């Protein structure tokens, strides 16, 4: 075309135009072949060379567009009240079917307010994450910054690998609050969300690590638990942690809890002969922030007494296997064991008494027999004496 | 070579700081309660307000961690020396603004005397360690402090009470650090 000036002239004009019309952010997605539109609005698809109203045909994904929602105007296609069914590859063809222009149309929503959640696993970094309240269906980028109120904005660093997460490195402690700003940008515009965070409120350590438990030899009702500071919490600590240990027999539903300030504690009231589940959690000793999540459950069995006599062993294993059947508490198991013991004692006492009685009876009979025997003898003597006396002389 | 850290002095100062920490938290809530809206509103934030001459406690963990004993104690000493003057100013203001808020006034005076004790203990620690006690200007209040409007006085009191809570949080950590250092 000879209309415009020479090539350099066109270049200059193009440059000036783009300088003037910089919509700062939507430029990210400037791509001749993709057009973005807002769901519900009217979209105009341009066919490049306006050919004085010469007939053009529009196709969607290769198929001719015939819809009550699509209006042809000067070669351009206007989609009214757009919805997601109108997304796709549009192409504009001339009478001969030759391709004049192809555009992909993607529809979605503009950015809206985000849900921001910040947490600090220690005193030297804050991690903020966010999510959309409503899906936009469009490519999105986020700009994350923060400030201490009146100071200048600083970057909250985003990781290449983690989406929708940023880290404030080396934040100021003993400062009242931060304001975090996450700006959502997509082809339809940008919106920023502010979140005020109080450092001391968002501190939440990671759970304690390497939790383990050992039986205590000779003590069937004790277990010793060990754990370590989470790797993310500095151990040199002018920021010491305090801990809670929760434990329960496997079959039980209610937990017992003990407090600890060191890295170990001894549980002194566990149920003998039962597996227990143990967990530990941590919190700043001064009470700032929140408890960590509970560490993963570990199982432990306290020290068992050496194998008892067969009958007793049977009764104790019986009560052990009956555990899962009964819904009653484990205390009744202990009671029945004691009852067995009492019964055994009674039986032995009874049999001992029986032996005594038998002996007593035996001796009584013996004495009686002897006594009887003596009587008989004396009687016989008497009768023989009398017989002798009655004999004629 | 500095003298070995005096254990009992540090422990005592630590206990006082822990006490003051609870004290100042209570002072802040009580103070806000009596100032009316927006101070007494929920979700109030400081917007980064600062007062000239009033040191801020804010410090990054890394920078704070690297302080020498002298810097550590010195910063605390300087801070509380300034706060004690501002605290007196706030007490005077509140005596005029809220004369019937007896619990607030009592709390202000109690905090004032405890901060004075803390300053004494910090000075004692530094002397015991052979450290130089930093010089503090006698009159630190900014010009025109006494002719402020009611609104300005209220704001000022808020910044002082809030700043104190931040400092006590930091001081408790400073003393924990010193206690642990001695044990090593």
SSE arrangement:
The complex is a heterodimer of chains A (393) and B (184).
Chain A: H1 7-20, E1 34-38, E2 43-45, E3 57-60, E4 63-64, E5 70-73, E6 76-79, E7 88-93, E8 99-108, E9 114-119, E10 125-132, E11 141-147, E12 154-155, E13 157-158, E14 165-169, E15 172-173, E16 178-186, E17 189-197, H2 199-202, E18 209-216, E19 219-228, E20 241-249, E21 256-260, E22 264-267, E23 276-284, E24 298-300, H3 310-321, H4 331-390
Parallel strand pairs in A: 1-8
Antiparallel strand pairs in A: 2-6, 3-4, 3-7, 5-6, 7-8, 9-10, 10-14, 11-12, 11-16, 13-14, 16-17, 18-19, 19-22, 20-21, 20-23, 23-24
Helix pairs in contact in A: 3-4
Chain B: H1 7-35, E1 59-60, H2 61-65, H3 69-97, H4 102-128, H5 150-183
Description:
The complex is a heterodimer of chains A (393) and B (184). Chain A is α+β, with helices and mostly antiparallel strands. Helices cover 23% and strands 35% of the residues of chain A. Chain A has four helices and 24 strands. In chain A, the strands form six sheets. A five-stranded mixed sheet of chain A has the order 1-8-7-3-4, with no helix packed on it. In chain A, helix 3 (310-321) runs antiparallel to helix 4. Residues 1-26 and 321-328 of chain A have low confidence and may be disordered. Chain B has 184 residues and is mostly helical. Chain B is 67% helix and 1% strand. Chain B has helices spanning 7-35, 61-65, 69-97, 102-128, 150-183, and one strand at residues 59-60. In chain B, helix 1 runs antiparallel to helix 4, helix 1 packs antiparallel against helix 5 (150-183) and helix 3 (69-97) packs antiparallel against helix 4 (102-128). Chain B starts with 6 loop residues before the first helix and ends with a helix. The model of chain B has no long low-confidence stretch (mean pLDDT 88). Classes of the chains: A alpha+beta (393), B mainly alpha (184). At the A-B interface, strand 15 of A face strand 1, helix 2 and helix 5 of B. Strand 15 (172-173) of chain A pairs antiparallel with strand 1 of chain B.
């Amino acid at each position: 075309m000879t209309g415009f000036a020479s090539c350099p002239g066109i270049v200059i004009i193009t440059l000036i135009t783009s300088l003037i019309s910089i919509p700062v952010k939507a430029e990210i997605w400037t791509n001749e072949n993709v057009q973005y539109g807002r769901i519900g609005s009217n979209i105009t698809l341009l066919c490049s060379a306006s050919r004085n109203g010469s007939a053009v045909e529009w196709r969607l994904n290769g198929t001719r567009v015939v819809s009550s929602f699509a209006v042809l105007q000067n070669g351009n296609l206007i989609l009214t009240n757009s919805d997601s069914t109108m997304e796709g590859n549009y192409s504009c063809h001339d009478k001969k079917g030759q391709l004049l222009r192809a555009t992909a149309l993607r529809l979605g929503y503009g950015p809206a307010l985000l849900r921001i959640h910040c947490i600090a696993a220690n005193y030297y970094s804050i991690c903020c994450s966010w999510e959309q309240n409503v899906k936009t269906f469009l490519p999105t980028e986020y700009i994350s910054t923060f400030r201490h109120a009146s100071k200048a904005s600083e970057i909250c660093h985003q990781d290449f690998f983690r989406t929708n997460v940023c880290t404030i490195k080396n934040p100021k402690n003993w400062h009242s609050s931060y304001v975090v700003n996450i700006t959502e940008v997509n082809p339809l515009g940008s919106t920023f969300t502010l979140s005020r965070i109080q450092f001391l409120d968002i501190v939440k350590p990671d759970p304690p690590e390497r939790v383990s438990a050992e039986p205590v030899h000779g003590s069937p009702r004790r277990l010793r638990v060990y754990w370590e500071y989470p790797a993310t919490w500095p151990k040199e600590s002018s920021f010491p942690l305090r801990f809670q240990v929760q434990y329960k027999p496997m079959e039980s539903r209610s937990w017992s809890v003990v407090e600890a300030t060191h890295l170990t504690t001894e549980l002194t009231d566990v149920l003998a002969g039962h597996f227990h589940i143990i967990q530990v959690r941590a919190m700043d000793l001064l009470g700032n922030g929140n408890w960590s999540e509970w560490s993963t459950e570990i199982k432990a069995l306290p020290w068992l007494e050496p194998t008892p006599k067969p009958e007793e062993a049977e009764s104790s294993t019986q009560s052990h296997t009956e555990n899962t059947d009964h819904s009653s508490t484990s205390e009744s198991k202990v009671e029945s064991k004691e009852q067995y013991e009492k019964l055994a004692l009674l039986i032995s006492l009874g049999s001992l008494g029986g032996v005594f009685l038998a002996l007593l009876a035996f001796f009584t009979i013996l004495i009686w027999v002897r006594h009887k025997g003596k009587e008989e003898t004396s009687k016989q003597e008497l009768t023989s004496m009398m017989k002798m006396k009655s004999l004629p002389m | 070579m500095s003298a070995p850290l005096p254990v009992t002095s540090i422990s005592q100062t630590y206990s006082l700081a822990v006490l003051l920490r609870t004290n100042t938290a209570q002072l802040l809530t009580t103070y806000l309660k009596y100032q009316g809206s927006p101070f007494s509103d929920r979700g109030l934030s400081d917007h980064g307000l600062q007062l000239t001459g009033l040191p801020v406690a804010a410090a990054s963990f890394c920078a704070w961690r690297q302080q020498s004993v002298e810097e550590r104690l010195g910063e605390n000493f300087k801070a509380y020396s300034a706060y004690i003057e501002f605290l007196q100013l706030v007490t005077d203001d509140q005596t005029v603004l809220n004369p019937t808020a007896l619990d607030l006034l009592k709390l202000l005076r109690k905090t004032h005397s405890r901060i004075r004790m803390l300053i004494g203990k910090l000075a004692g620690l530094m002397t015991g360690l052979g450290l130089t006690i930093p010089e503090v200007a006698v009159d630190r209040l900014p010009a025109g402090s006494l002719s402020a409007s009611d609104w300005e006085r209220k704001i000022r009191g808020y910044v002082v009470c809030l700043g104190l809570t931040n400092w006590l949080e930091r001081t408790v950590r400073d003393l924990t650090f010193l206690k642990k250092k001695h044990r090593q």
